[in-house]
Write a structure and sequence with these properties.
single chain
């Protein structure tokens, strides 16, 4: 799958040099284009979506940003977010574009978002697997934007085919809902997403391998995917507090994995991560944040958690840089 040579170069939306252009034109409909411009920030960016319980994302980093939304209609139009001038303390992204697209064909067709750095694009790709709240959830989008800020092309697929878990459902229904998400179908959708990224890079004449990141449900699937991949497509991985991970799959993983979790997370016990680290080896690492529970890194609920979320993001950023940007 990862040695595909059948892809044909298309009109570029990646903002890479012409020799590295990758295309999306054949997958986009006029009504599905979403482009978002974001201003610079020290380590991340001001999240474009807000809710009453929104995270405290690196609050000390930012000055308030004035957001001006404008919806346009037409083939080459977009929905844009522009920011006023902001002081920055070190280099980060100045522009991130996002496109909403459909990938795969027939029963394999799934929706996804692609986020790309425009000014500082490093020509590397990352597959980001969401938690149970799905690819449209604001916390997942925010995190994908942050990763793209540092030069990456980030694809976030819809793992639940339009049926993610929603917070207002009774918790007693969770297992029933999860059982309705066929594991083989989810694995196939991730494979379809991986192939799409690989084909785009192949069409652009880029042979670099990919990185993979997952949260919670997605963090658990990272191990499954790496075990099946055997190092063919992915060269580095990050699993944030992965759930329902298969211990038997760990020994089949051929690439380094950074595990990030809290010591107060019953869904991802520290002892389990330690065993995974031993089984995988090959430079893998486990980082445990004291006193932190589930989802603290992408859904921080306090200023204290926000500080640890920033540290976790920095660890991940450096891990990806060393494994993708430097070694590619």
């Amino acid at each position: 799958m990862c040695n595909s040579t059948s892809a044909t170069p298309l009109l570029s939306h990646f903002g890479l040099p012409k020799t590295q252009d990758m295309g999306l034109a054949s997958t986009l409909s006029p009504s599905s284009l979403l482009c978002t411009s974001l201003c610079t920030a020290r380590r991340g960016f001001l999240p474009p979506y807000h809710s009453p319980h929104h995270h405290f994302r690196f609050l000390s980093t930012f000055r308030k940003c004035n957001l001006n939304w404008q919806r346009l209609v037409g083939k080459n139009t977009a929905q844009r977010v522009r920011c006023s001038a902001m002081e920055v303390e070190d280099e980060a992204c100045e522009l991130v574009n996002g496109v909403e697209l459909s990938i795969g064909e027939g029963d394999d067709n799934i929706e996804a978002y692609l986020f790309k750095a425009v000014k500082n694009n490093n020509g590397t790709g990352v597959l980001l697997l969401s938690d149970v709240f799905g690819f449209q959830d604001s916390a997942t989008r925010d995190f994908a934007y942050q990763v793209a800020c540092h030069g990456y092309n980030v694809l976030v697929p819809d793992l639940f085919r339009g049926d993610p878990w929603v917070k207002d459902r009774p918790k007693t229904m969770f297992e029933q809902w999860l059982a309705s998400q066929d594991p083989q179908r989810v694995a196939n959708d991730i494979a379809t997403s991986t192939k799409w990224l690989v084909d785009e890079f192949t069409a652009a004449g880029i042979s670099k391998k990919l990185g993979i990141i997952g949260f919670c449900f997605g963090g658990g699937r990272v191990i499954d995917i790496l075990a099946a991949d055997q190092g063919a497509c992915f060269s580095i991985a990050v699993s944030f507090y992965g759930t329902r991970m298969d211990p038997s799959a760990a020994s089949k993983v051929k690439v380094p994995v950074l595990f990030i979790s809290g010591d107060n997370d019953p869904l991802c016990p520290v002892i389990v991560l330690s065993e995974f680290e031993k089984s995988i080896g090959k430079g893998s690492r486990v980082v445990i944040f004291k006193g932190r529970g589930h989802a603290f890194a992408h859904r921080p609920g306090s200023l204290e958690e926000d500080a640890d979320a920033e540290q976790a993001f920095t660890l991940m950023r450096n891990w990806l840089h060393d494994g993708l940007a430097v070694n590619s």
